[in-house]
Amino acid sequence: MSSSRGAASARLRSIPSPFAVATTMTAPSRPDRIEDPFVAGLQRARTAVGIVATVWLLMAYPLAEGREQFVMGKVEDLLIGSGLTLAVGLVAVTAFIATARSPLGRRYAARLTGPLSSLGAIALGAGAAWLMVMMLKGDIISTADVGYHGILIGLLVGALFIIGGLVCALLLLFALLFTLVALVQGLNSCFRLGDVHELLPALISPLLVWSLFVLGLFDGPDVAAPPVVLYTFLLGGPVSVTALSAWEVRRLRTHHGVTLRGALGR
Fold first, then answer.
1. pTM of the predicted model, to two decimals?
2. Percent of the chain having pLDDT more than 90?
3. Are 202 and 159 in contact (CB under 8 A)?
4. pLDDT given for residue 8 in this prediction
5. Where exactly are the transmembrane stretches of this chain (predicted)?
6. Is the model more confident about 200 or about 189?
7. 124-151 confidence digits (pLDDT tens)
8. Distance, CA of 5 to CA of 232 (rounded, Å)
9. What's the pLDDT tens digit per position in 205-260?
10. 78 has pLDDT over 80
11. Which CB contacts under 8 angstroms, 24+ apart, belong to 208-215?
12. How many other CB atoms sit within 10 Å of the CB of residue 245?
């Protein structure tokens, strides 16, 4: 009995979590990509500080609106940020490839499979979530579509629909978590643009965060905090990201010999 329970728990542990799958599909993974552990550590530290600051702000001051409005606002910010990243990244990659001398342009174009797979993962998760919602609502198939064929058949169909509903609910939860993590990870990695070239995320990130800062100025504050606290909090993200990006570009040049001129073959 204990061995069967152990085997069952081992099988459950072997099921990949949506967090692990989303991270794998949206994190840069080019084998020969330059990875600087010190820069990665600073990026994680900046993210942790940002999370701690956000939690402190929410704990120290009351919400300006209700919790539901706050959550929906953050989801909207995430979608806007992803859209901006996609738009800026598309323009930047196109310009980067177009201005790179041969054969670098073709090499960079061949590396677009990383960003495309990241976008495909997000689209797949969102599509799966939408499909599960349609299934649960009965828009695709319902008991009315099966009809009545006697008590036994009706009980069997009812049991199948209950089991199917539970499966769809679990798949919906997986798809929602996967899509959320993929969006966050994709936003942090600029949708794997580091797979095209190491400089692209560092060059694009400041433009992205300052664009979000400008948009945030037109939105109402999330919490009822003094203006000095709100503007300090709003400026903290763009300033820290810009400083870290500038330092990353400098470190790529001084420690790894990576420059924009060299990346373009000029």
1. 0.75
2. 2
3. no
4. 46
5. 47-64, 79-100, 112-131, 151-184, 196-218, 224-247
6. 200
7. 888 888 988 888 887 777 666 666 666 7
8. 53
9. 888 888 878 777 777 777 777 888 888 888 888 888 898 889 989 988 998 888 88
10. no
11. 208/81, 208/84, 208/85, 208/88, 209/237, 209/238, 209/241, 209/242, 210/238, 210/242, 211/84, 211/88, 212/77, 212/80, 212/81, 212/84, 212/237, 212/238, 213/237, 213/238, 215/80
12. 22
Judged by DSSP in three states, 147 sits in: coil
Tokens, residue 111: 């590396």
The closest of 27, 221, 17, 55 to 115, measured between CA atoms, is 27
Single-letter amino acid, residue 112 = L
Which residue blocks in 138-259 are alpha helix, DSSP H?
Answer: 143-146, 151-188, 199-218, 227-256
Handedness of CA 246, 251, 256, 257 (dihedral sign): positive
d(CA 109, CA 92): 13
The Cα–Cα gap between 128 and 132 comes to: 6
The strand pairing partners of 223, in sequence order, are 63
